[in-house]
Design a protein that fits this description.
The complex is a heterodimer. Chain A contains 8 helices and no strands. By secondary structure, chain A is mainly alpha-helical. Chain A has one domain: serine acetyltransferase, domain 1 (Orthogonal Bundle). Chain A is elongated, with a radius of gyration of 27 Å. Chain B is of the alpha/beta class. Chain B has a single domain, classed as Alkaline Phosphatase, subunit A (3-Layer(aba) Sandwich). Chain B has an 8-stranded mixed sheet with strand order 4-3-5-1-6-7-2-8, sandwiched between helices. Classes of the chains: A mainly alpha, B alpha/beta. Chains A and B meet through α3, α4, α7 and α8 of A and β4, α7, α8 and α9 of B.
Chain lengths: ~160, ~450
């Protein structure tokens, strides 16, 4: 009797073990880095204010902007005639906030070409052409007062950044 | 190179170099300056639909609510006339007395309409706000104008910048709110004119209100030297993008002007914090805020052309009591602004012309809404809403009253050719084909 019960228990144990212990299959997904645009000429639609602000904020802080701040910012930009001046002020405000995710000036000076390519990809979503690399490389090397903040402000306030 | 050829080329180069800075955007070599009547114009678009009866006619409660013996002038800074005997509602509150029994003291020494050119009965071309504002700024009847689109015809700012060569920071529009498409009034969408000749714009209740403070006041203050690389790099980026004129979505200041505007915004927040910004002593709300910062803009930029919009009187749709209070305060704000320029901005003090005109009137008959005093409210849609007035006062403006209730003289579309006349570009504006053919300078209506 005991032997018979042990046999059943042993069979149940085997069934439970074989059913519950399946090897876990690890699946992971990734995103390949691609340039959205081959050329700036493909950008023909202006970003609206909400798009501009939320894209810029996410770009600089690597986190989404809150709806209330987005709403306030939209109103404030709408209330100033010179959009370029308004955007420059907005950026100078962002540069004073904690949590900003931008490279250091040392990185820019020591890796100028890489910095330029990364900046073009980050803001313009495309590779710079040779003349663009040449201009910025030369400009950054020859102007000690050119900082990352100034480069980023120039990109974010540029006409091209206002289009997609 | 032969000597003759050298001299010829050198002369051409030198001549070109000397003359080119004076070539206006319109292609003319020199602006007309001989006929300029004043160096600055301030246009106050007053104040959100004003009935003739309570404003220029001084009827107070008599025509609107049927209260006999209750006529009187509640706009002492603009119009001549004794205040009503029954002083209730519109003035300041005195503890222990009926609300609003103390009229706000006059800011000016003599009513502005007595000191300048006064048209007491002018015809508006529309009974609506946005079309009315468009009329005041474009000189057109604006019959096809819709909301949420820029003016369909060039504004006075664009005429002045294109034909008179004013820079962007010499032309300003200050609106009192971001609703009702007000921020679109600084420029038209006409291709030959448009944003490239538009005015600078602030909406002070937003730009310098809590929202503006939260978004802009914490900015880093860069010096012009620090900003130079940014402008160099931006200029390279913009040139290589080569934005089409039709896609331009903002007015453009020079780098110097832009830096000055940013400094102004930053300094204004500092002054605000220190309580150093003077404002109309007895008025609050968006109209007073707009006038307050209009004064700051004038002090800083000395604009050649400034227009500002007030609209709190529009509460008349549902609250006649509030309308009377707002009307009295709008008058106070105009008086304050006039005196502020006179006493605090020497460059503009004796060299400015103020023009004040409503964008539309209000109905003859009330709607059914009654307020706390059981007074009926008024909309603006009938013939009476086309009855307005205008006051122009300042340098080289004659003291004269033109027309009366039974002899209407002038149109609201006259304001743009009048300003053009003041700055010496009347012919250019009149022949532009964009303005009302019946419009003419008020100086020519005398």
């Amino acid at each position: 009797m005991i032997m018979r019960n042990f046999k059943y228990i042993f069979i149940c144990y085997i069934i439970i073990c074989t059913c519950s212990c399946k090897r876990k299959v690890e699946v992971s997904y990734g995103v390949n880095s691609v340039d959205v645009y081959d050329s700036k000429a493909q950008k023909i639609k202006p970003k609206n204010e909400a798009e501009y602000i939320s894209i810029l904020y996410t770009n600089l802080f690597q986190s989404p902007i809150s709806p209330s701040i987005l709403y306030q910012t939209q109103n404030v930009l709408y209330s100033i005639g010179d959009q370029s001046a308004a955007k420059e002020m907005l950026l100078s405000n962002y540069f004073n906030l904690p949590g900003l995710n931008i490279p250091s000036n040392d990185y820019m000076r020591n890796n100028t070409e890489a910095f330029i390519i990364e900046t073009y990809k980050r803001f313009m979503l495309r590779q710079p052409n040779q003349s663009e690399i040449y201009f910025f490389k030369k400009y950054i090397e020859e102007n000690s007062e050119a900082t990352v903040e100034m480069v980023y402000t120039a990109f974010a306030a540029s006409d091209e950044y206002g289009f997609y | 190179m032969k000597r003759k050829e050298f001299i010829k080329k050198t002369s051409l180069l030198v001549g070109g170099g000397v003359l080119s800075p004076y070539i206006l955007p319109s292609g003319r070599l020199f602006a007309k300056t001989g006929t300029e009547k004043a160096s600055h114009v301030v246009l106050i678009m007053f104040a959100g639909g004003v009935r003739q009866q309570e404003s220029v006619l001084g009827r107070y409660l008599e025509d609107s609510q049927g209260v006999s013996g209750a006529a009187g002038n509640i706009m002492p800074n603009l119009f001549d006339g004794a205040p009503p005997n029954k002083k209730v509602v519109y003035g300041l509150d005195v503890p222990g007395e009926v609300k609003g029994t103390d009229p706000i003291p006059m800011m000016v020494s003599s009513p502005l309409s007595k000191e300048g050119l006064f048209f007491p009965e002018v015809r508006a071309q529309s009974a609506g706000h946005y079309v009315g504002l468009n009329t005041l700024l474009t000189g057109s009847t604006a019959t096809t104008q819709g909301l949420k689109v820029r003016p369909r015809n060039p504004t006075i700012f664009e005429y002045l910048r294109k034909h008179r060569g004013f820079s962007a920071s010499e032309c300003w529009f200050l609106g009192n709110g971001i609703g009702n498409s007000t921020p679109l009034l600084n420029s038209s969408d006409v291709l030959d004119y448009g944003l490239q000749y538009g005015a600078n714009l602030f909406i002070p209740p937003v730009t310098f209100g809590s929202q503006g403070k939260a978004i802009l006041s914490n900015g880093k203050a860069y010096t012009q030297q620090e900003l130079r690389p940014m402008y160099d790099m931006k200029s390279f980026l913009d040139q290589s993008f080569d934005l089409e004129k039709s896609l331009q979505n903002s007015i453009v200041n020079s780098d110097w002007e832009k830096t000055k505007i940013k400094e102004f915004i930053r300094n204004t927040f500092v002054k605000q914090q220190l309580g150093q910004i003077p404002s109309p002593p007895n008025a609050g709300g968006s109209d007073a805020i707009t006038a307050t910062y209009a004064a700051e803009v004038m002090k800083e930029f000395k604009p050649r052309m400034m227009a500002l919009n007030m609209s709190q009187v529009d509460g008349c749709h549902s609250n006649f009591t509030g309308y009377l209070r707002s009307l009295h305060r709008a008058d106070h704000i105009v008086g304050w602004l006039h005196e502020y320029v006179k006493n605090n901005i020497p460059e503009m003090a004796d060299n400015t012309i103020f023009i004040i005109a409503p964008e539309c009137g209000r109905n003859q008959n009330p709607n059914p809404i009654i307020d706390e005093n059981d007074w009926f409210a008024y909309d603006h849609s009938d013939w009476n809403a086309l009855r307005v007035w205008s006051v122009m006062v300042g340098k080289n403006v004659p003291k004269m009253k033109v027309g009366n209730e039974s002899n209407p003289t002038g149109r609201l579309t006259d304001i743009v050719p009048t300003i053009a006349d003041i700055f010496g570009i009347y012919d250019e504006v009149k022949s532009s084909s964009y303005i009302d053919p019946l419009a003419t300078s008020q100086f020519m209506r005398i």
